[in-house]
Automatic annotation (TrEMBL):
<dbReference type="InterPro" id="IPR029016">
    <property type="entry name" value="GAF-like_dom_sf"/>
</dbReference>
<dbReference type="InterPro" id="IPR000160">
    <property type="entry name" value="GGDEF_dom"/>
</dbReference>
<dbReference type="InterPro" id="IPR043128">
    <property type="entry name" value="Rev_trsase/Diguanyl_cyclase"/>
</dbReference>
<feature type="domain" description="GGDEF">
    <location>
        <begin position="236"/>
        <end position="376"/>
    </location>
</feature>
<dbReference type="GO" id="GO:1902201">
    <property type="term" value="P:negative regulation of bacterial-type flagellum-dependent cell motility"/>
</dbReference>
<dbReference type="Pfam" id="PF00990">
    <property type="entry name" value="GGDEF"/>
</dbReference>
<dbReference type="InterPro" id="IPR007435">
    <property type="entry name" value="DUF484"/>
</dbReference>
<dbReference type="Pfam" id="PF04340">
    <property type="entry name" value="DUF484"/>
</dbReference>
<dbReference type="InterPro" id="IPR029787">
    <property type="entry name" value="Nucleotide_cyclase"/>
</dbReference>
<dbReference type="GO" id="GO:0043709">
    <property type="term" value="P:cell adhesion involved in single-species biofilm formation"/>
</dbReference>
<dbReference type="GO" id="GO:0052621">
    <property type="term" value="F:diguanylate cyclase activity"/>
</dbReference>
<protein>
    <recommendedName>
        <fullName>diguanylate cyclase</fullName>
        <ecNumber>2.7.7.65</ecNumber>
    </recommendedName>
</protein>
<dbReference type="InterPro" id="IPR050469">
    <property type="entry name" value="Diguanylate_Cyclase"/>
</dbReference>
<dbReference type="GO" id="GO:0005886">
    <property type="term" value="C:plasma membrane"/>
</dbReference>
Amino acid sequence: MSFERVKKRMLEAGSVLPDTPRHSRAPADEATVQELLKKAAQNEQILKRYQRFELRLLDASGFSELLNLLLDDSLAYFQLDAIELWLYDPEQTVAEHIENLDDYSNLLLLPKSEPLKQLYGAKPSVQLVSLGRVQSPAIFHNAALRSAAMLPLVRQGVLVGSLHMGARGHKRFALDKSTDFINHLASVVAVCFENVVNQERLHRLSMYDMLTQVKNRRAFNQALEKEVSRASRNKELLSLLFVDLDHFKRINDSHGHPTGDRALKIVAQHINQMLRKTDHVCRYGGEEFALLLPNCSPERALEIAERIRMQVSQLPIYNDAGQSLNLTLSIGVSCWQPGTTACEQALVSERLVRCADEGVYSAKSKGRNTVEFVAYQQ
């Protein structure tokens, strides 16, 4: 391979070579050529490693997989001592799709974009920085790190995040290093996050009831399976409430379907605001809602059910003519506690639903506007 071809290959790989005139090819240049060949081979291996990692990123099917690749696997891929990710998440799109944020100690979700703007200024670009000096805002909190690369994540002209690669060696990300590879990586990471955000938004649309804006029956079935599994694993209680609007057909017939729709929306949103973020509020079908309450005792579940029943009966709901309506609820409650013997999860789910449903029928048979508890039976 000629020296010019080596030089061309190195330049394509992003390395910085000294300016070498054509007339200076003395025998001593043979060692230089060998060194350049070695450097070219190293750069080729680095490039292949980046390409393999980028393909894995592009294949990621959701936030969890993408975050695990960036915040865990990348350490070995790029021989890093630390990695950190900041993401602009004003609508909590990322937060609500991560089951346990505590699992990602090196992930920072930002409600505002100012910290990102402070990092990069008006024109975001890859920065190689020394961590020995004071930075504002500070990246990492590891005194052993000496250098870092800051990769801005930009989509459609908007700075949406920042990926930080840290090293103990002060020369790893020195200013004389080429940034071609990590510039490209930053673009790929930004594209991947845009893709998974769009995927999650579509997924969210498929899991929510358009009228009431709470989760639908499909989402309930998935949540029930997940929560039964979690309760079994952690030996925790799991309560289920079935909530049915009393005489709802009469409301539709007497006041019209727009009034009925309005009533459903008001009740759903009111219940949703009363519960914890870890609880699941779902429209089970028609005028019936299912409330799944993880780690909730029977006593607490009954207290919540009674509070919901009482507050909904006092909600101001009006028909199209401005006339007020009286809404009441019949609520069935049941609770499952994992036993010492193993039980098939699908069977647990089926029995828990049946017991809560029996509670609703019992409440209606006793005159409606009441709460009935049905004990879970193995």
